[in-house]
């Protein structure tokens, strides 16, 4: 069967990243970095990438892939055991044999399944109006992980935060999957009586409780909260990770686009199902975090249980002179889920968030002296709004928050906010 275009697109968007250990490329980095543990030469890594590409396009199984890799790697001296040095000098030289069947299978299936998962997520985002739910489906493996079995039968909206961490595959060799279903199917499954019979499935629309454990990456020192039942490094949704990568790419493209042309592109972006989905997920996560804090949980614990994804979404382009006044080199303005969802009182509808470009074009703009934050004041549909921007990584501005004030733009709260600012426009 020909691979869906989304699958191939995900795989081909990855850049070659030769690394000594699987711990060197971590979590969501796999969405944009192609690596094989221990393969430190780019020319060898390129052969793996080319062969998996062909496997996706032509529908190969593992045995065909293995034969292809033997043909490609034998002339390079990489088919069989060899000693590989750590380029960073942190670990000792180790023996690497990429021809070992188990190791080669891990490389093949990890890349094939993550690419298919990213493609499925992309399709789910495009078709969720007709198929708004995902159903966690039982693995076809003979030996099933108990935690994964407990997730079977879970039915949640496509954009539910649960899928940010539990969208399969959920570990090395995991063969779990999800199926996208209609609202009618959702109702039908939930109406089926529960059974205690061995092997039976109970359906629920309640997300399973997420218990995490701390994993420390011994190569980088990075600490991550990984849900119990998911292998470290697999706790991210490859489709969402791809979205972050595409968000950064899109921001770079908008940087290079003249303002008049960029406005049209941004208008299409912020009037899309993708943007509305992004807002919905952010506000759902914000509500979840607020509920956790209401239970008395510390912010550090909330960040572990319900972390922000910080996926950048381009919502505006600064005029070049304003970018210069703000002290940033790149004019594209991004919005993240944390900015949208952090305050439930500020969970505005999509027509408000899609007005960022209009606010920058026609609003009053001030710059705070002490930290360079930008405040944009404008009425939208008769309501007074203040948009707050600040420098973010990438030498650009990002939206930090937006709030509405009943006092109007001349009220005391806004005057206090602007006390330490200079008018820019």
UniProtKB/TrEMBL annotation:
Domain of life: Bacteria
The organism's taxonomic lineage, starting at the top: Bacteria, Pseudomonadati, Pseudomonadota, Alphaproteobacteria, Hyphomicrobiales
Region feature Disordered, mapped onto this chain: 190-212
Organism: Rhodoplanes elegans
Protein name: Phage head morphogenesis domain-containing protein
InterPro entries given in the database record: Phage_head_morphogenesis_dom
Residues in Phage head morphogenesis domain copies: 47-178
One Pfam family it belongs to: Phage_Mu_F
């Amino acid at each position: 069967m020909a691979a869906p275009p989304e699958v191939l697109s995900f795989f081909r968007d990855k850049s070659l990243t030769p690394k000594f250990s699987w711990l060197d490329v971590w979590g969501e980095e796999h969405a944009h970095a192609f690596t094989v543990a221990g393969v430190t030469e780019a020319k060898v890594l390129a052969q793996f990438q080319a062969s998996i590409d062909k496997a996706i396009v032509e529908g190969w199984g593992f045995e065909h892939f293995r034969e292809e890799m033997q043909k490609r790697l034998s002339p390079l001296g990489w088919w069989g055991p060899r000693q590989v040095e750590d380029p960073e000098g942190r670990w000792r030289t180790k023996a690497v044999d990429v021809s070992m069947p188990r190791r080669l299978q891990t490389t093949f299936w990890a890349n094939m399944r993550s690419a298919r998962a990213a493609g499925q997520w992309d399709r789910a985002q495009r078709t969720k109006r007709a198929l708004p739910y995902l159903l966690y489906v039982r693995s076809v493996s003979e030996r099933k992980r108990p935690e994964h079995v407990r997730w079977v039968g879970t039915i949640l909206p496509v954009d539910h935060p649960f899928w940010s961490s539990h969208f399969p595959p959920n570990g090395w060799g995991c063969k779990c999957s999800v199926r996208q279903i209609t609202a009618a199917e959702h109702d039908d499954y939930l109406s089926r009586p529960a059974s205690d019979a061995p092997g039976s499935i109970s359906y629920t629309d309640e997300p399973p409780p997420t218990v995490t454990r701390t994993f420390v990456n011994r190569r980088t020192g990075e600490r991550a909260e990984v849900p119990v039942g998911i292998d470290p490094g697999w706790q991210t949704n490859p489709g969402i990770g791809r979205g972050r990568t595409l968000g950064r790419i899109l921001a770079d493209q908008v940087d290079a686009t003249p303002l008049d042309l960029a406005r049209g592109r941004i208008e299409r972006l912020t009037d899309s199902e993708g943007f509305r989905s992004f807002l919905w997920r952010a506000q759902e996560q914000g509500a979840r975090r607020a509920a956790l804090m209401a239970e008395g949980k510390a912010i550090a614990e909330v960040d572990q249980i319900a972390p922000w994804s910080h996926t950048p979404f381009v919502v505006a382009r600064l005029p070049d002179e304003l970018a210069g006044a703000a002290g940033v080199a790149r004019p594209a303005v991004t919005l993240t889920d944390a900015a949208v969802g952090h305050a439930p009182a500020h969970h505005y509808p999509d027509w408000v968030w899609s007005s960022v470009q209009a606010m920058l074009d026609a609003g009053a703009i001030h710059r705070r002296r002490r930290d360079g934050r930008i405040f944009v004041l404008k009425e939208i549909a008769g309501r007074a709004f203040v948009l707050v921007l600040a420098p973010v990584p990438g030498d650009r501005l990002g939206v930090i928050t937006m709030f509405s004030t009943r006092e109007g733009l001349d009220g005391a709260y806004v005057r206090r906010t602007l006390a330490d600012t200079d008018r820019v426009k």
